[in-house]
């Protein structure tokens, strides 16, 4: 019997169309190419972004519950959910809880891992980030801006910073825009290193509002302006992690692992 099988790619979402297609769209395209026997669907977890896209752009994107209901009503038997989230935080937990409510509507549901889940993921992410900046030398510091959360998974950011240092990148610093370590912690740590130049890069799948405004904005409380006030030459890379092929490969690896559970 030919089973109807789907891969639901779940993202936080973004209201910035350009970065959406370069990142989330690129991940979905590569998943579709790697798994041609599966129907590929999209869902976003941010209610705010979903409302904005519908009101401003007339774009309707499913929530996880809506996507699962649609798949069930269309007769799909197997669903693999692959999140593009960076950590196993609140958005991931909510997504898993929403999906779990549909467990009895399908033969099998399985969920792939977010970007930074396994120990090896940290090393792979570090390679993916550093290969984007081959010219980084001892007088440069790279500061990564993660999102941050009150969820205990926020510890991932400190763990990633530790991994960078352990792999010899003493000039790379990982902070968050909405939790700890914050920008002021980053300034203190960077000062200890004493670089001449700072490069800022979002540690987020998309280069959306946080990257454009909180990181690279012209307001005095943006990370760029705060570091400039400290006397550093600052440059910003407005690229989401989803634009990096090596990052997309990690998501594909996680999806492949989840696929094994469906096949068992």
UniProtKB/TrEMBL annotation:
Record keywords: Cobalt, Metal-binding
Superkingdom of source: Bacteria
Example of a GO MF term: sirohydrochlorin cobaltochelatase activity
Xref: CDD domains: CbiK_C, CbiK_N
Enzyme active site: 147 (proton acceptor)
Gene Ontology biological process terms from the UniProt entry: anaerobic cobalamin biosynthetic process
Positions annotated to bind Co(2+): 147, 178, 210
Annotated protein name in UniProt: Sirohydrochlorin cobaltochelatase
